[in-house]
Amino acid sequence: MSALVVQPVWQPSTVRPARRRPASTQPARRGNLQLVGPGFVPRPAPSGAASSAVESASAAPRPAPVTRSRLRLTPLGRSLVASTALVLASGLAIGVGAAAGRAVSAAPSVDDVATVTVAAGENLWTVASAASAPGADVRELIAEIAAINELGTHELHAGQQLLVPTH
Description:
The protein contains four helices and two strands, in the order ααβααβ. It is mainly alpha-helical. It has a domain at 110-165: Roll (Membrane-bound Lytic Murein Transglycosylase D, Chain A). A two-stranded antiparallel sheet has the order 1-2.
């Protein structure tokens, strides 16, 4: 058996000439890059305004002023900011609710108070000593009665109804 080997025939390709750019009216600019070797020390460009070598050596080039652009958040960043704000608001609401709950629970409930009608000649001491437990400090109970009933003074009138805590 014989083998036949086929190889492509080389043909020159059609090369288009490079497109020429129109001549610019501006003078050619010098590039910003420069090849440097070891030990290179940059020197400022000579200026016509500098009259002495001391002035040109002391005039260091100033960096360009930094302009700050407005912060742009991505959608992921926006959702992160929104969720952080939501967590902080929830924590604040829970904290305020807990503080309000403690304030409400500190006040005596309806089950913890009894209504007492003041008789003629009674004062807060007699009402508090009648309602206090044996051996308890009557002065603390007087302060509680005054706070619950919002009494400005310790004067009582016959027939006045007071809420008295029952401990």
